Amino acid sequence: MDKRKFAFSKTNYILLLVGVAVIIIGFILMCGPGSTETHFEPDIFSVRRIKVAPTVCFFGFLFVIYAILHRGNNKKQ
Questions:
Q1: Are 61 and 23 in contact (CB under 8 A)?
Q2: Which helix (H) or strand (E) holds 46?
Q3: Which residue, 25, 31, 30, is CA-closest to 61?
Q4: Rounded to 10 degrees, what is the CA torsion of 15, 20, 26, 32?
């Protein structure tokens, strides 16, 4: 049987999906009400939106880079 050689294995794709999910969670954490011309929303400067969400996104991007570079088990058959 001649199997095609793909650049990524199943493990790589799973790790990529996990990394993308973490990035999406980070962007969801950044969401919230915004200020208008008549009303100032102090939640813009909350810890969740300023520190936690960007940190979650950063680790998600690092995880995606790891998923791309992950080699896994190279079994020759």
A1: yes
A2: none
A3: 25
A4: -150
pLDDT at 77 (0 to 100): 46
Instruction: Decide: 49 and 27 in contact? Cβ < 8 Å.
Output: no
Report the alpha-carbon distance of residue 64 to residue 17 in Å, rounded.
8
* Per-residue pLDDT band at 33 (split at 50, 70, 90): confident
For residue 60, pLDDT over 50 is answered with yes
Q: Is the dihedral of CA 61, 65, 67, 68 positive or negative?
A: positive
Place of tokens 């020759």: 76
